[in-house]
Amino acid sequence: MINLILLGLPGAGKGTVSERIVDKYSLAHISTGDMFREAMANKTPVGLEAKSYIDKGNLVPDEVTAKLVEERLSQSDTNNGFILDGFPRTTAQAEMLEDITKRLKKPLTNVIALDVDEGVLVDRLSARFMCKSCGATYNKFSKKPKVEGTCDRCGSHEFYQREDDKPEVVKNRLQVNEKMNAPLRDFYQQKGILSVVNGEQSPEKVFEDTDAILSKN
């Protein structure tokens, strides 16, 4: 059984490695963004509660997010294990998650932090661009379209760079995220379930190192 959280700053490669983990171990990949969209579309009580905050432009309180996480983790597809993406973001949320996983008898087995130098992350994120039509993400260094100028997914020829992928914005975003990430790493270090993987290696090697940790479960 693998119940996993991946930690890492934006651009550290969490999305890439989580896809490979899901493929190998058939885990439920739980993204808080997807959870919110699904709960609001299905008009669940918690989804409607979250929507009432979002519609007013307010942040969804931790308690509501936690209820949503509990609702999602209660579903049967998580019985074989899960990866949580985007939650927890703070130690207060980590404590809430601990209560949830105790109640559901689905305790976390691993927290893996992908470690990447800030300068490398700035280069990676500044190199990111997206398809204007379908939103597919590419990178000038590590993930170019198979045919230059043509989106692999939808065939469009129009690309753009998000404002928050520009170097000066990226640096600020990383500093904000690091302030949130460091206490979480400390929290799980104290729990004895944190492992650190060098995220500056090739995606294959990052997965290999991550898999070596998970295969011990």
UniProtKB/TrEMBL annotation:
A single MF term (Gene Ontology): ATP binding
Residues annotated as binding ATP: G11, A12, G13, K14, G15, T16, R128, T137, Y138, Q201
GO biological process, one term: AMP salvage
Domain of life of the organism encoding this protein: Bacteria
Binding site for AMP: T32, R37, N58, L59, V60, G86, F87, P88, R89, Q93, R162, R173
UniProt family annotation: Belongs to the adenylate kinase family.
Protein name: Adenylate kinase
